[in-house]
């Protein structure tokens, strides 16, 4: 029998060109491609073991998983059992270095770690592209967290999604950028990214979003290759702001920002006007993430930290792909 227990670690990622909207909701197939940077130290460790017990046991950060969060992991275990031809129930524990459900991509790190640990524990030995496709089923953005550094997730055209996988564009060491994340509130978000994407795709602005993404992807790839922060930052900022603009025009409207979110954006723009290249990105939550060079990170962190009601500021660097720990 293959080993029935495995532990893996994966890191969150920040999308520089966002994934926002699906072409197939059941398979988490995206309407467009996306490009991200995997982030140290935003890691999640997951252990999975099959066998024993009448029901799946899922502990997230030491607490039994409840509601939709637990259901997502359970559905993912069912998928693993189907792929591996196993029937036993599983015990899953995940532990993260980051708060969950507030827009810091904890689900990307969790499902990438679960895909690696779960597939090994179930006796499967998947290559990174297949792992990426598996992680995608748990959370779309998890497809990218299988790889380190700069990563592109391809939209793919196949109805079964087998070509909708991520691949590395450049290793973490290619470019020592920083992402400074300002946590403006650690309250859990009211609208999940799943729900947000559904609303956004019904927005009258959604077709414009889809049309723009190809050009953004090409510009981001070139900027990463040439280590051109100005070019990459402007694309990343545009992608994020356009994503949120689409939501504003939806019915019902979608607005993840809080007051301090807007204040952080203005402070970053002021820094830029004074000559510090720094560019904002915002995901499905109120937190603000700022892309900058390593030597500018302390200045950016201090500026964000001064914004009233910013709870904490985290400085992240390019991180590695998913790794097996045991
Ligand atoms: O992977 P999900 O379903 O959590 O969606 C992620 C959506 C964004 O973080 C807003 C964008 C992205 O590409 O990561």
Number of strands: 14
Structural class by helix and strand composition: alpha+beta
Q: Share of helix among residues?
A: 25-40%
Number of helix segments?
9
Structure description:
- The radius of gyration is 19 Å and the shape is globular.
- The strands form two sheets. Strands 1, 4, 5, 6, 7, 8, 9, 10, 11, 12, 13 and 14 form a twelve-stranded mixed beta sheet that branches. Strands 2-3 form a two-stranded antiparallel sheet.
- Helix 6 (206-225) runs antiparallel to helix 7 (229-248).
- The chain has nine helices and 14 strands.
- A hairpin with a 6-residue loop joins strand 11 (278-281) and strand 12 (288-293).
- It has helices at residues 67-84, 106-121, 128-138, 142-145, 193-201, 206-225, 229-248, 259-273, 297-305; strands spanning 5-17, 22-24, 29-30, 34-50, 57-60, 63-64, 90-96, 150-153, 166-170, 177-183, 278-281, 288-293, 312-318, 323-324.
- It is α+β, with helices and mostly antiparallel strands and 326 residues long.
- It starts with a strand and ends with a strand.
- Residues 15, 18-20, 34, 107-108, 139-141, 193-194, 283-284 line the site of (3R)-3-hydroxy-3-methyl-5-(phosphonooxy)pentanoic acid.
Task: Set down the secondary structure blueprint.
Elements: E1 5-17, E2 22-24, E3 29-30, E4 34-50, E5 57-60, E6 63-64, H1 67-84, E7 90-96, H2 106-121, H3 128-138, H4 142-145, E8 150-153, E9 166-170, E10 177-183, H5 193-201, H6 206-225, H7 229-248, H8 259-273, E11 278-281, E12 288-293, H9 297-305, E13 312-318, E14 323-324
Parallel strand pairs: 5-7
Antiparallel strand pairs: 1-4, 1-14, 2-3, 4-7, 4-8, 4-13, 5-6, 8-9, 10-12, 10-13, 11-12
Helix pairs in contact: 1-2, 2-3, 5-7, 6-7
The chain binds (3R)-3-hydroxy-3-methyl-5-(phosphonooxy)pentanoic acid.
(3R)-3-hydroxy-3-methyl-5-(phosphonooxy)pentanoic acid is lined by residues 15, 18-20, 34, 107-108, 139-141, 193-194, 283-284.
């Amino acid at each position: 029998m293959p080993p029935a227990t495995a532990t893996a670690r994966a890191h969150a990622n920040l999308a520089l060109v966002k994934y926002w909207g699906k072409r197939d909701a059941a398979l988490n197939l995206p309407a467009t491609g996306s490009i991200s940077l995997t982030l140290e130290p935003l890691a999640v460790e997951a252990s999975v073991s099959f066998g024993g017990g009448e029901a799946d046991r899922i502990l997230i950060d030491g607490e039994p998983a409840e509601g939709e969060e637990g259901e997502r992991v359970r559905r993912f275990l069912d998928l693993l059992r189907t792929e591996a031809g196993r029937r036993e129930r599983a015990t899953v524990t995940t532990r993260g270095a980051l708060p969950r459900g507030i827009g810091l991509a904890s689900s990307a790190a969790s499902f990438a770690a679960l895909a690696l640990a779960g597939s090994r524990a179930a006796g499967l030995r998947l290559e990174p592209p297949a792992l990426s496709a598996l992680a995608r089923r748990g959370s779309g953005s998890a497809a990218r967290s299988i790889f380190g550094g700069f990563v592109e997730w391809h939209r793919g055209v196949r109805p079964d999604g087998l070509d909708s996988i991520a691949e590395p564009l450049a290793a973490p060491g290619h470019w020592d950028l920083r992402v400074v994340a300002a946590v403006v509130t650690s309250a859990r978000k009211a609208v999940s990214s799943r729900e947000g994407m559904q609303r956004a795709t019904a927005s009258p602005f959604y077709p414009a979003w889809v049309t723009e993404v190809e050009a953004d992807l090409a510009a981001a790839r070139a900027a990463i290759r040439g280590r051109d922060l100005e070019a990459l930052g402007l694309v990343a900022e545009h992608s994020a702001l356009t994503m949120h603009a689409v939501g504003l025009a939806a019915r019902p409207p979608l607005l993840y920002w809080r007051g301090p979110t807007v204040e952080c954006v203005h402070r970053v723009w002021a820094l830029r006007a004074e000559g510090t290249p720094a560019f904002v990105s915002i995901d499905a939550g109120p937190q603000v993430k700022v892309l900058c060079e390593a030597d500018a990170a302390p200045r950016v962190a201090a500026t964000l930290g001064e914004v009233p009601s910013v709870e904490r500021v985290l400085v992240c660097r390019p991180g590695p792909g998913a790794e097996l720990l045991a």
